[in-house]
User: What shape does this take?
Amino acid sequence: MPRSSNAVASRARRKRVLKAAKGYYGKRKNVYTVAKNVMEKGLTYSYVGRKLKKREYRALWIARINAAVRAEGMTYSQFIHKLNEKNIDLNRKVLADMAMNEPESFKNLILSVK
Assistant: This one.
């Protein structure tokens, strides 16, 4: 029985990889084996980057809240502790946005917690 090759599927697979590698430098964009390796590494970086993005934003929010709270004579950890004691459920994203864009309402929040 003769050996059969599924040319349609393998060509489509190669085409998909090369299309994803479009814009890369040198052999990375037009040599299949190189493009495949680079593309896989790029997908790994993008997966890790999505996790890092969340971590970095949380750190940014905490820094903004800390700066705004210290201007009122309190530390970040004290502020969060007192929010939890008063059962005020605002996440760090909302608190950072308030501190940046609505400083008066943020000051009122700090005074209500003290």
User: Anything to note?
Assistant: The chain has one domain: 8-113.
